[in-house]
Amino acid sequence: DAGVIQSPRHEVTEMGQEVTLRCKPISGHNSLFWYRQTMMRGLELLIYFNNNVPIDDSGMPEDRFSAKMPNASFSTLKIQPSEPRDSAVYFCASTAGGIRYGYTFGSGTRLTVV
Amino acid sequence: SQQGEEDPQALSIQEGENATMNCSYKTSINNLQWYRQNSGRGLVHLILIRSNEREKHSGRLRVTLDTSKKSSSLLITASRAADTASYFCATVPSGGSYIPTFGRGTSLIVHP
User: What residues contact residue B112 under an 8 Å CB cut-off, 6+ apart?
Assistant: First the structure.
């Protein structure tokens, strides 16, 4: 099993540009989470999906952020337009058993907006 | 907030020593999880302890949970340089959304 796969690993973009982060969860996992990690705020939950349906997006900071999960094997997190304060490491995580098991994290995408 | 808080923020020890990290939280939980994060990597799940459990072991890891004090501890015995990482606790609340929230982590450095 290749684990949770995120791409790209690093992204540097100019302010105002659109950024799309991608995630492939572990096959068979039915819940997917997007987290953002910064030194100042730690790990913040942005949104999570259950069976491809967004359940809670209250952590999405602004309308500039959107996430989709068109099928069980793919999710995207889009920022449009990007701003320097969006610079962070974005993690995707998945789990099969809901609250009963731990979560498997991807290696993250380090986003730098200049 | 349900967020767990780890203590200490940073810990520096010599190889072979034991490392103890603590996590405190505020409301009832279904389970509590510990994760490790190496520099530049994603979080790796170490161990999950349910609210009706008091202690769990996994190799050199020992986790305790005291629900009356709303606290947990992670003990790493006979530490190795490779244990150098940040360690996070994540609390999954009982009832509600069952979404884990993470603390700010403990940065552990093990000197060879």
Answer: B15, B81
What pLDDT shows up at residue B96?
Answer: 65
Residues in Cβ contact with A73 at an 8 Å cutoff, skipping those fewer than 6 apart = A24, A25, A27
Is the separation of the CB atoms in B22 and B105 below 8 Å?
no
- Residue type, position B24, single letter: S
B45 touches chain A (CB under 8 A): yes
Is residue B87 helix, strand or coil? strand
CA-to-CA distance for A112 and B72, rounded, in angstroms? 35
The beta-carbon neighbor of A107 closest among B35, B42, B97 is B42
B60-75 tens-digit pLDDT: 999 999 999 999 999 9
Q: Six-digit token pair at A98?
A: 């809901």
- Closest residue by Cα to residue B35 from B79, B68, B72: B72
Distance, in Å, from the CA atom of A36 to the CA atom of B44, rounded to the nearest integer, reads 16
Nearest Cβ partner for B100 among A4, A42, A103:
A103
Confidence of residue B2 (pLDDT cuts 50, 70, 90): very low
Could B48 and A103 be called an inter-chain contact, meaning their C-beta atoms sit closer than 8 Å?
no
**Beta-bridge partners for A85:** none
Residues of chain A whose beta carbon is less than 8 angstroms from a beta carbon of chain B are: 4, 33, 35, 42-43, 45, 48, 55-56, 91, 93, 98-108
For residue A114, count other CB atoms closer than 10 A to its CB: 10
CB–CB contact A45 B45 (8 Å): no
